[in-house]
Design brief:
The chain is an alpha/beta fold. It has one domain: 3-Layer(aba) Sandwich (Rossmann fold). 31% of the residues lie in helices and 20% in strands. It has a 5-stranded parallel beta sheet, sandwiched between helices. The protein has a two-stranded antiparallel sheet with strand order 4-5. α1 (15-28) crosses α5 (172-187). The longest helix is centred in the C-terminal third of the chain and has 16 residues, at 172-187.
């Protein structure tokens, strides 16, 4: 299975990166292909809301000249996608939100019988790390993720929140547990 992991954190060695690394190592050891996207390594612009992408149906069709289409090609070719983000203001980081907003161009003919999504049927999971508890803090982000998956016709196979994160070295056991659960669910197996 080919799995794209997206690190939506500006910290490439932070808590979210640590859990994603454990998850990736688990899957690589089982023979799966991992393609990591460190989102801050790319030039990505926010959606313009211009609807130019809706004028073409065979390709995403965004008119912006940045790295987004190359990232979308990697995502489209994958069997599964894992979005990893620390919690910023009850939601995704600005960097990951930019990628999510731009997924608008991956939907064609929405609200018609000719509806098409370039992510249709993809298995998708969400990983969130946060410094505080889940309740009244990280309880909204899974709802946003579910709606994103519904709109893109992808399949939300897991939403994982690791609360009370301190430093990557201090959360290893909890991170291993979450990474193991993620691996099981993204693959659709029970190890």
């Amino acid at each position: 299975m080919k799995i794209v992991t997206i690190l939506g954190s500006p910290r490439k060695k932070g808590n979210t990166a640590k859990v994603l690394e454990l998850f990736e190592n688990n899957l690589v050891s089982q023979g799966h292909e991992i393609d990591r996207i460190n989102i801050t390594s790319y030039n990505l612009k926010g959606c313009l809301g211009c609807d130019k992408c809706k004028k073409v149906v065979d390709v995403p069709g965004c008119i912006q000249k940045d790295d987004m289409m190359a990232l979308f090609d990697r995502m489209i070719s994958a069997d599964a996608i894992v979005y990893g983000t620390p919690l910023y203001w009850w939601g995704f980081t600005a960097q990951l939100k930019t990628l999510i907003d731009r997924q608008y161009c991956l939907i064609k003919n929405d609200e018609t019988p000719e509806y098409k999504s370039f992510l249709k049927g993809k298995r998708e999971a969400l990983l969130v790390t946060c410094a505080d508890l889940i309740e009244d803090n990280a309880d909204l982000i899974p709802v946003m993720f579910e709606r994103k998956c519904s709109y893109t016709a992808s399949k939300a196979v897991g939403k994982y929140i690791l609360p009370s994160c301190t430093s990557p070295d201090e959360m290893v056991e909890a991170a291993k547990e979450i990474a193991g659960k993620m691996a099981q669910e993204i693959l659709g197996t029970h190890l």
